[in-house]
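Quick question, first post here. What does this chain look like in 3D?
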Amino acid sequence: MTDAKSIAKETVPILRESYTIALEVGNLRFVEYSGNIFCLHELCCGYPPATLEQDRYTYHKSLVKLNQVIAVNHYRIYWQIMLNLLVFAENTTLLFD
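> Answer (accepted):
Ran it through. Tokens below.
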């Protein structure tokens, strides 16, 4: 039987590719869907948060640049979890500004 963690690890490269293709063709729905899900899967799979922080910041900036306000707010939840794990957050209940 395959566990959820190994399934999530298998989906990360697929979701990253989906995100890249969606950016190239301008499909904003898939940009936000793929990006949010691959961020969540990497976090749940136990990737070291310190190595993911820069990627998360880059992804956040791309969503802001694309004016995807709802996706940015949704994504901030994942980013806050990562910041809490890294102990970077001054206030662990306030979403990143």
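The chain has a mean pLDDT of 80.
The first helix runs from residue 4 to 25.
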